[in-house]
Design brief:
Elements lengths: L24 H15 L9 E7 L5 E3 L3 H6 L2 E8 L4 E9 L3 H31 L6
Antiparallel strand pairs: 1-2, 1-3, 3-4
């Protein structure tokens, strides 16, 4: 959010998840909050997209794991990313990972965030291409 235009205002965002369909809700809530701000016309530096990934006992990496996969995973992380600015805005890691493994999981999450970003742009573009009516 571009705080320069907000003055001394405070913006609180709360997400109430009524039902989670066997997934990690944090990346969904982060992405939805970014979309809500954009939809409300709040000036932002960039859209934030988020993904989660976890490792398996076999050493594989799963993007957007289910609850069952998360509970069986030895480690994982959630990452939020602003792709236009190429900035990571949020990382939550749990479990133990070697530096190379952490880099691999982060790279997979970044790729997932970029894919999500493309879908968000397709969804938002028609809204901002509508003609504006002036009085």
């Amino acid at each position: 959010i571009n705080a320069e235009y907000m003055g001394k205002s405070q913006l609180d965002i709360r997400a109430v998840v009524l039902e989670a369909a066997d997934c990690d809700v944090l990346p969904v809530a982060l992405t939805c909050a970014s979309l809500a701000l954009c939809n409300a016309g709040i000036e932002m530096y960039d859209l934030v997209t988020a993904c989660s990934a976890c490792t398996t006992a076999a050493g594989d990496v799963l993007l957007d794991p289910t609850d069952a996969e998360l509970s069986a995973a030895p480690s994982g992380l959630t990452l939020a990313y602003m792709s236009s600015l190429q900035e990571i805005t949020h990382v939550v890691q749990w479990g133990s990972m070697a530096p190379e493994e952490l880099q691999q999981v982060m790279d997979i999450c970044l790729a997932g965030c970029l894919q999500s970003r493309a879908g968000l742009e397709r969804a938002l573009t028609p809204q901002f291409q509508r003609p504006q009516l002036c009085d």
